[in-house]
Amino acid sequence: MAKPVEKITLGVDVAKDQLVVSNAQTEDTTNLPNQPAAIKAWLNMLHGLLRIAIEPTSHYHMDFVEAALARGAEVYLINPRQLAHYRQAVNVRNKTDPADARLLARYLEHEGALLRPFQPQDRRAQQLWALLKRRATAVQSRQQLQQSFSQVRISIRALLTQFQQLLLRLDQQIQQLIRELGWWPDYQRCLTIPGIGPANAAALVAAYHRGAFAGSNAFVAYLGLDIRLRESGKYKGKSKLTKQGEPELRRLLYCGAKPATTHQRFADYRQRQLAKGLSKIAARVALARKLARIAFTLMSRQQSFNKQGITYCTAP
What we know:
Blueprint: E1 7-14, E2 18-23, E3 29-33, H1 36-44, E4 49-54, H2 62-70, E5 74-77, H3 80-89, H4 97-111, H5 123-148, H6 157-180, H7 184-191, H8 198-208, H9 216-223, E6 227-228, E7 231-232, E8 235-236, E9 240-241, H10 247-260, H11 264-275, H12 280-301, E10 303-305, E11 312-314
Parallel strand pairs: 1-4, 4-5
Antiparallel strand pairs: 1-2, 2-3, 6-9, 7-8, 10-11
């Protein structure tokens, strides 16, 4: 009987110019230039099945990820916040590049059964996600400038106009990519939801197509809008959002919750949350979560929102 081939477990700490790779089996640490040719040559020197844990770092991890996938490796993108909590749990005090690489390998070695391998998207989908992040940066920068100059007698109207033109160009590129990816019908379905505009709809569609979600609960958890409970015995701690994933997705849904209350059903829903004792902010977050669930349902069922009744109707 053939002996099963053991997988080699690697942890990769990423920087702009250098990669630090730790092998869980041999405990060896390797420094590599973060260059496609060097990465490919090093991966080709390894023999056997590979599974690799890597912490996403801007776009600097993509060359290694693409080379590893081409090599047939299983790649796991590890959430930085989860890794930070894991570091505390296993009492790793030092935070250096080699220590982080070893921690990533250890995390995958012990928790790999609970993780899902990374599945690469169409490059246009990756570009769409990158544009959504750039748009978020532009919006944040505009808000910071408006707040900074609010008490100064210097006009920044021309600068704000430039920001508006930049956002318009970004929105046009985002919509073009959605069309090219064949996601335009889902985009239109999201737009039928009260409170959801072009930016909100684009973010929802991009998030929906990033993975295979078991249901609306999984989708809400991906957005970081699910609730983390803190209870032990008689102790009842405060419930808080997990805030996993991209903050921009939550910001857009939170912003969309305010105009959504122009629809009576959503206004009534918000009022019921207030009647439960929730604050105005918490009630608005609850409505944002509701919008996310509705968007998921519409896209998964290929339906559009019916503003006249309490059901959904099939889109023409």
